[in-house]
Amino acid sequence: MTAFLLGILSSLAASATVLVLGLLRGSRPLWWVVSVCSRWTGTGLGRVYRRQSSAEQDITRDLRRARWVKVLAGRGNLLTRETFSPLWSGELAPEFVRVLLPDPDAPGDSWLDRRSRDLCRFDPGYSPGLLRSQVRANTEYLAHATRDLHHVDLHSFDLPHTCRVIATDQAAYLTFYSSSAHGRNSPCLYVQAPGLLYSIALEQFDTAWTNSSPARPALQP
Description:
By secondary structure, the chain is α+β, with helices and mostly antiparallel strands. It folds into 2 domains: 1-42; 44-214, Endonuclease, Chain A (2-Layer Sandwich), CATH 3.30.870.10. Helices cover 42% and strands 18% of the residues. The chain is built from 7 helices and 8 strands, in the order ααβαβαβααββββαβ. It has helices at 2-25, 31-41, 56-64, 85-89, 111-122, 130-145, 196-210, and strands spanning 45-49, 69-72, 97-102, 152-157, 163-168, 171-176, 188-192, 213-214. Helix 1 runs antiparallel to helix 2 (31-41).
């Protein structure tokens, strides 16, 4: 039993050390160290980006060779930019694309309202209803862009949401949201399949997908 516990503790310690190194440096020379240690611990951690926005070029590359794509986003701004445009234009045609965005019309004190209050604390440009408006605009954009793509499904959800997930059959990008920073300025983890973190990323998405419904934006003619 003692050896078993020591093995678990050493694995967790190694993972934590690698993660700290990646966050402090975030440079390509350390990525091979991260990969070697992740194979040893079974986490699947491949890279750490100091900022989520730094991962966009690599996301574009992974989308081009993906067999399927799953996206769980808190706002969806990236989905309207060049990184994802090949999916909406038909240039790329994976087996399926599933996109989850928060429900901008969820009643009561929704997750979007709670996240909006966080944003208002550190970004003076945010008003209480701005985040809902941004999600609504992004949902309408995607619904219009993918209206003729039968392999793309766009759903809305209203659940506690603490991270962004962009996953393919080969890897996933995980960004954990902070109460004091925008997602684009938060660290992003690149995790490979198979691996513990990759499994967690898919479980996050699948749980939200099970509790979601097809998005019904008010499309303009």
